[in-house]
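Exercise 7. Given the components listed, write out the predicted structure of the assembled complex. Treat all entries as one system.
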Amino acid sequence: MAGSVYGTLFQIMTWGESHGKGIGVTVDGCPAGLPLTEAQVQRYLDRRRPGQGRFATKRQEGDQVEILSGVFEGRTTGTPIAMEIRNKDQRSRDYGDIMDVYRPGHADYTFDQKFGFRDYRGGGRSSGRETAGRVAGGAVAALLLEAFGVKVQAYTRSVGNIQVAPERFDLEEMWQNPLYMPDKQAAAEAEDYLNQVMAQKDSAGGVVECVITGLPAGVGDPVFDKLDACLAKAMLSIGAVKGFEIGEGFGAALLTGNQDNDGFSLDADGRIQKTSNHAGGVLGGISDGSPVVFRAAIKATPSISRPQRSVTRQGEERELEIKGRHDPIIVPRAVVVVETMAALTAADLLLRSAVSRLDRLQAILTPGR
Amino acid sequence: MAGSVYGTLFQIMTWGESHGKGIGVTVDGCPAGLPLTEAQVQRYLDRRRPGQGRFATKRQEGDQVEILSGVFEGRTTGTPIAMEIRNKDQRSRDYGDIMDVYRPGHADYTFDQKFGFRDYRGGGRSSGRETAGRVAGGAVAALLLEAFGVKVQAYTRSVGNIQVAPERFDLEEMWQNPLYMPDKQAAAEAEDYLNQVMAQKDSAGGVVECVITGLPAGVGDPVFDKLDACLAKAMLSIGAVKGFEIGEGFGAALLTGNQDNDGFSLDADGRIQKTSNHAGGVLGGISDGSPVVFRAAIKATPSISRPQRSVTRQGEERELEIKGRHDPIIVPRAVVVVETMAALTAADLLLRSAVSRLDRLQAILTPGR
Amino acid sequence: MAGSVYGTLFQIMTWGESHGKGIGVTVDGCPAGLPLTEAQVQRYLDRRRPGQGRFATKRQEGDQVEILSGVFEGRTTGTPIAMEIRNKDQRSRDYGDIMDVYRPGHADYTFDQKFGFRDYRGGGRSSGRETAGRVAGGAVAALLLEAFGVKVQAYTRSVGNIQVAPERFDLEEMWQNPLYMPDKQAAAEAEDYLNQVMAQKDSAGGVVECVITGLPAGVGDPVFDKLDACLAKAMLSIGAVKGFEIGEGFGAALLTGNQDNDGFSLDADGRIQKTSNHAGGVLGGISDGSPVVFRAAIKATPSISRPQRSVTRQGEERELEIKGRHDPIIVPRAVVVVETMAALTAADLLLRSAVSRLDRLQAILTPGR
Amino acid sequence: MAGSVYGTLFQIMTWGESHGKGIGVTVDGCPAGLPLTEAQVQRYLDRRRPGQGRFATKRQEGDQVEILSGVFEGRTTGTPIAMEIRNKDQRSRDYGDIMDVYRPGHADYTFDQKFGFRDYRGGGRSSGRETAGRVAGGAVAALLLEAFGVKVQAYTRSVGNIQVAPERFDLEEMWQNPLYMPDKQAAAEAEDYLNQVMAQKDSAGGVVECVITGLPAGVGDPVFDKLDACLAKAMLSIGAVKGFEIGEGFGAALLTGNQDNDGFSLDADGRIQKTSNHAGGVLGGISDGSPVVFRAAIKATPSISRPQRSVTRQGEERELEIKGRHDPIIVPRAVVVVETMAALTAADLLLRSAVSRLDRLQAILTPGR
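Answer.
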């Protein structure tokens, strides 16, 4: 109840600071019998690893995950799955200004206000490094979803004002460029833009889009725990995210009902389908069987090396220049964080949907009837 | 755990369907000693009442709230506050097509998929009428916040593409027009636009903005229960909301770090303040003492009287024309829903922030020290 | 989070005070499709009604339940089931000493300490009348369990030191005497004892036993949410309960491992069964397929008309004589409270057990596989 | 939501199996500013260490705790405190019969029923070793309570039918004997009894008593989250516990109201006190300022080397003789588990009590008023 637990049936608790002993996560509520290996989780973690290109920090984190419990003979046991990533480099060093001066755009000031003091080393608990625990936990959720035929896929939709063009969209291309953009041309333009930004000791933002396919209709709860409401929370819980939208999103505010409504029809097999997907796969907060499509807006990296106005903890004004190398853009590394937070959300609500109907429950719990 | 409970320390559970016996809410966790009357709650409910102008349905709901428990001698007792609004008109009537044909843009189809059947009368639990319970509960939260000097205020920011102009912004004006727009000229233009839309048997959407002032720095929890993450969930849990953004929101994705970062300075009394508020009042998910500013995008009313493509529950294609009068726009009635959901969220996190520091707790729990 | 919510998947929130406008409960998470009527719930409520014999108060409460939501065409819809019992008699009257003097054995003093003041009318929220909400909610849980072939049955096991004799145990007999004792002779002896106690202006306690049959093996979660741990909480949450034990209970502390362990064997159909049931139906907190057998110890009614030492709210010593008629024993009316709290607990954990295995979930969530 | 999370504001999640890589716990919600070292936690863990006397297994576990996060410069930061105890000895070895034959009195059968298979090595997650995580987390809770002047102390009250005599009660003595009995003579008798039991290849049970002193009046929530209800759950969640009672407990069922009620009087300083403590420190589920006194009944160690009737996983009857050394009695090692589970419960409810009154909250949250 201090914000480090996520989910209800499929639940994770994360821990760890940027420059502490490590980062970790414990998954509780993963059903028994799911095949799971460290290598599968590691593949997700590798996608958020820094140092993979010009637009990421050079620090080599390594981030080797170790599964400590909850897996036996290659399958989940139904009991907690603890995973841990030890920090390689925790030497005590000079944190200089960061220790006393509040960095603009960071949580230094608010942590001090909330807790009375803070672990100032590299941002402590408010560091982006905290997301490693989510990614490890979310990898398990993604694997669980796959066992039900559900696939979650995120990618970079825009960098600054350079956007993936629908007509050039090529999902395979996202794996070919360091920005994870599924559009070769947009990726090239975005790289040029980022080079300009970096030359000015500045940073950039962008938008990540995510699509969930294969999710059956009926997932998400009415009223407060709507699928889109839970996804919105999941996205805004990621450090630099400033906005969330599903389907037409903010664009829906500009459409009329006639333009925005999705009709219903029957497919060749007589199954009900929607004639369009302006809604982004949810109606009344419950999945409608169409792809769930949503976006998260990510602000520019707040750590820039230009001088900025600030104050010290002791209450003196001070100009701050942040040293060291920082990602000029968070977006590419956030892609897998968006994807795994979406997986955690969908997995939890999918499990919850299993208990919504008496007839289905009777089929599970009294199979002999 | 089926989505009808909201909040952790300050908690509500809502119930009720559009055409059932009534709508209600129970508040648990409101601290003891808060002055509370039915009239105070009624004022909030009256703001979501339909039939107040051309752009709202003519149905007279009344919506008189009754407080059933938890208040004694004019003050909250610390035990559950049950509130109830009896539905006036629940005559059995002909629901015609709605009973069998899935309305586009509504939750008819997804409720059937989730639960196997549904209360089809007026949308049942997925009706906008469900929000009456939230508003009653949120009114208590808003009154609690006032006891701490915190004020929550929402208003219509745009209707279709007609937006409140910053230079004409006048909060008092919002009470003078049926659209709750704090800009007389924009309200007039929006009314023209809505008349056109109605003439075409169509509907419109818009954006609601909300500002929380007086919230001390330090509210909101790190990682998953960030203030903005909780607000995002609160907003998307409202039926027709398709997007959420805080501060610069989606615009932040277009800014550079240098443009978006808020500096720190000292005010005349030597207190720390930000030099701007692009962040919208949160840093790392924790309130920073500036106004919390966020927006919710609301889609056009899905009930339109034009013919729409649909299918029946039994799996036949059918053209649907929705009869009866419906709001051509939900936005004005959603303003108080946005406001009260924000109040519920802020009240809960404010209470939670009371237990984050040992020194503060010792002051109240070991008074003799 | 102020103690008025019970359960996780099958969840209730109760409200109401002894002399307020009414008592109520909202059930969230009951699966859709369960047949449910007010008459079914009423039957449970009638069992806790006072005024049914010499050993219960004469006040006629009536306690007519009204279902306000969540049921459509005779079946639960999967959305919240609100139920309400209006108090008949809430005339303002003279509460005399109770208003200022703390009654021994009651929560008057502790409510004042916790909340700063209290609704002193008839005990307010700490009145035994609060259990009416639980019983109504628990009736739904009991009916849900029946749909899975699970039956919960409680009865009076002892009154003072008069205990049901195993060799005379006759479940049908419990419906024939006002003490709900399944042993005619013990019931007669207990009535004599109670007459003596009443003649001395005193009161008595006893033990309620409860048996859950038909619960499949595998219900209850390892570690903290063990079936027996949840039952223990359920029982101690009932006002006058001072102890809980399962199977051999406190007697197990006197046995050796060889005496207490239950062996395993095969029944005629080759199914695994235990050779005894000292454990009371749980192993490691998980149901083992045997009957779940537990007991709750209930203290004597604290309201007695003898003079007692007390103090006033204002801090003066005062001798207190409680006027009015009070049950000389709570036990018989507690039987249905024990039974319904057990039903709530078992229903919740039964639903939770549906999501513990991947293979079972795949059968319902990916039916096409 | 699979049973591995305990608490609401002060919350722990535990993980780990008997013969896996380790055991651990993460604490979320500990207020910032509490001094905390590994040595302080280790002192609690050392008390549950086996191999400390004749009546405990010879296996040397070591159990060195490592704090991985949440502590900076010697104080808690308000963010999650992850703690880990690596298992020293996880060599793959021959588990022989245990792999296939269900041990009487253990959770082997029920885990298989619930999850479809299990980690059979040393009991896996259902091993008593699981409690190491609770003890580490509970140590933090105990230290937090001390910061508020609250002390939790458990001890062995009885072994078989040998009970601590009130007139010989000497708390210091408990540290002098391997049974943690605060009565030298009873401890000597209990040792004789255990020697007899061991000679018969059998095992014994007993009762642990626990006292919480210094807890202010007003802790515990009405209705479901009563202090005693939460303690009952805490106790029954410990593997071998079969019963819980508070104050007079089951004895209260034999007393009359006149015998059981505690009167109120004023102490020398005019403060309200009770004239006795039959209630065990709670009235209506809320602490009354007196010591909270409760007991947990613990069954005999189920692992005995005598032949027992059992069946195999494959459904064949088989006689089982459990090899290896096992504690002939769990009680002494359970003392610290009882104590730390009580600390977790009291710490959580103490924090929750901080938000029950508006006046106190205003003192914390708007100190300048």
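Discussion: Chain B has one domain: 5-365. Chain B touches chain D at residues 1, 8-9, 29, 31-34, 76, 78-79, 144, 147-149, 216, 222, 350-366, 369 (CB under 8 Å).
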